């Protein structure tokens, strides 16, 4: 029988109704009490780590989760982290950078409805997660939700209310879980030499979402508090150069100040490719912008936080950014 550590951090799964709306109050022992069938395939210990609506989840909380997994890594075969859905994709991506090459599974899960309701997705999600974490064929950071297994670097919350809240972006689902049966579509090889833990992040990463008519002033204002700025542009990625809102001078200024600037897209699927159009080509070739290609925004943000936690050397930042981690990108730029 496999030994699993269940770590609770709050979220709807652990919430109860209060006069001010849902608030997380159910601890991990009680969560486990709702899924007695887990006893057929695993032994579970519990760790009440945090009690947050995931809107309040901060990078220092990610480091706390990593610290807990690191401390108990040798003692358990797998880990299940119960988490709110709102920022779950960020946490799963952050854990994928902070715990690399893990031969043991680290499953992040949650629910759209509290576990104490009669009609809820919480019990299925928790039981599926324990089952996936109990398999010797599982490893690395994943989200298990609504019967799907999604790579930690590829998840995005796409629905605010439905049970099928999460999608895998620009990458197939690893597996489905239905009626207790895991169907694996392919096996991601376990990298040698793991696990590798990291314990530093930088919060000096910002996001600038472009809308028509917006000038570069706000972007420039971000420079004081950010070492890396992600520009969420249109289509495959480009920068306006209209005389009324020309971004060229602002970008030259930012990169001249040593800022890392990454282009990503507002379009949900298929990613960026700045070389396609003149509006992107110039920014990439002349202004030295990086781009996210097929990476999710969540992965781009947390990868930059992880990189800036280690170095401020531009060449090293670029090299780390372009090196795929946890299959976060299928593009390798040299
Ligand atoms: N479904 C949920 O878990 C939403 C909740 N607000 C959270 O992210 O903590």
TrEMBL record:
Molecular function per GO: asparaginase activity
Domain L-asparaginase N-terminal span(s) in chain numbering: 3-183
Gene3D superfamilies: 3.40.50.40, L-asparaginase, N-terminal domain
Family annotation (PROSITE patterns): ASN_GLN_ASE_1, ASN_GLN_ASE_2, ASN_GLN_ASE_3
Enzyme Commission (EC) number: 3.5.1.1
One GO term (biological process): amino acid metabolic process
Boundaries of every Asparaginase/glutaminase C-terminal domain copy: 204-320
Protein origin, superkingdom: Bacteria
UniProt KW keywords: Hydrolase
Alphabetical list of InterPro entries matching this protein: AsnA_fam, Asp/glu_Ase-like_sf, Asparaginase/glutaminase-like, Asparaginase/glutaminase_AS1, Asparaginase/glutaminase_AS2, Asparaginase_C, L-asparaginase_C, L-asparaginase_I
SMART domains linked: Asparaginase
Residue numbers binding substrate: 54, 85-86
Homology family: Belongs to the asparaginase 1 family.
Record protein name field: asparaginase
The species this protein was found in: Neobittarella massiliensis
């Amino acid at each position: 029988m496999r030994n699993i550590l269940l770590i609770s951090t709050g979220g709807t799964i652990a919430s109860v109704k209060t006069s001010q709306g849902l608030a997380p109050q159910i601890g991990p022992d009680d969560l486990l009490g709702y899924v007695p069938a887990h006893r057929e395939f695993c032994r579970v210990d519990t760790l009440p780590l945090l009690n947050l609506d995931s809107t309040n989840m901060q990078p220092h909380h990610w480091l706390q989760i990593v610290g807990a997994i690191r401390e108990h890594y040798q003692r358990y075969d797998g880990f299940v982290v119960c988490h709110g859905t709102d920022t779950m994709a960020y946490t799963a991506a952050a854990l994928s950078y902070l715990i690399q090459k893990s031969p043991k599974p680290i499953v992040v899960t949650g629910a759209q409805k509290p576990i104490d309701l009669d009609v809820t997705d919480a019990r299925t999600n928790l039981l599926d997660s324990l089952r996936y974490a109990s398999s010797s064929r599982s490893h690395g950071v994943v989200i298990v939700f609504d019967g799907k297994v999604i790579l930690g670097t590829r998840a995005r919350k796409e629905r605010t209310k439905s049970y099928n809240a999460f999608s895998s972006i620009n990458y197939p689902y690893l597996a489905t879980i239905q009626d207790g049966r895991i169907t694996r579509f392919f096996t991601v090889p376990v990298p040698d030499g793991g696990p590798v833990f990291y314990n530093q992040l930088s919060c000096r990463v910002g996001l600038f979402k472009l809308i028509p008519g917006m000038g570069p002033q706000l972007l420039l204002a971000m420079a004081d508090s950010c070492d890396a700025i992600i520009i969420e542009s249109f289509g495959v990625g480009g920068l306006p150069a209209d005389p009324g809102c020309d971004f060229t001078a602002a970008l030259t200024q930012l990169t001249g100040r040593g800022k890392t600037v990454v282009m990503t897209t507002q379009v949900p699927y298929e990613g960026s490719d700045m070389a396609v159009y003149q509006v992107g080509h110039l920014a990439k070739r002349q202004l030295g912008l990086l781009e996210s290609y097929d990476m999710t925004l969540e992965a781009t943000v947390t990868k930059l936080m992880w990189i800036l936690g280690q170095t401020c050397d531009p060449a090293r930042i670029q090299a780390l950014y372009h090196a795929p981690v946890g299959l976060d990108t299928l593009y390798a730029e040299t």
